[in-house]
Amino acid sequence: MKITYTARKVTLRDNFKERVEKKLSKFEKLFSDNATVNVVVTLEKNRQTVEITVRDRGMVFRAESTMPEMNDALDKTVDILMRQIRKNKTKLEKRLKSGSLDDFVQETPEIEEEPVEEYQVIRKKQVIVKPISVDEAILEMNMVSHDFFMFINAETNEVNVVYKRSDGNYGVLEPASD
From the centroid of its chain, how far is CA 59? Predict the structure, then answer.
């Protein structure tokens, strides 16, 4: 796995990077050698946020945690990633290296076994999408009081989604091939 670090308003020490590599080494047998890991550490006042994004074979795993201490945030983030993988074990087995997921789940200590969720679609809705700008899409999203809005981007002619982030800002989802 290739690990990339991004530090925002903070300087990362070598011992923190070593700790990240040690924690993420648990996941190496699950992902290919081409997997990329982005670790973003942000300092805001007295809070430290650690965000880890793992990309491999078109799959994306992302976890984020904010704590007063950087190492605590890292531990929590790795636990969240582990829970995501355990929770979606059967779906992931089909896409990840065969057998290694069973070994990983058995090796990791049991935290709290969460009940396996069965996904059930309870509503299907057709949406008329039209070419508009990102600003217009945000305006329409706010007008209908939704947290997201699907549209055709007038600049790229592709389907995009704008969404409201938890920090009050906005994001845009654009299609990309891996």
Answer: 10
> Which conformational region is residue 94 in: left (phi greater than 0), alpha (psi within -120 to 50 degrees), or beta?
alpha
Instruction: Name, in order, each residue with C-beta under 8 angstroms of 21's C-beta and a sequence gap of 6 or more.
Output: 3
For 131-173, the fitting CATH number among 3.40.50.360, 3.90.1150.10, 3.30.505.50, 3.40.50.170 is 3.30.505.50
* Cα pseudo-dihedral 50, 55, 61, 66, rounded to 10: 10
Task: Determine the 3-state secondary structure of 93 from DSSP.
Answer: helix
Q: Are 141 and 133 in contact (CB under 8 A)?
A: no
List of the chain residues with pLDDT < 50? none
Per the CB < 8 A criterion, the answer to whether 157 and 174 are in contact is no
Q: What gap in Å lies between CA 172 and CA 161, rounded to an integer?
A: 6
pTM greater than 0.90:
no
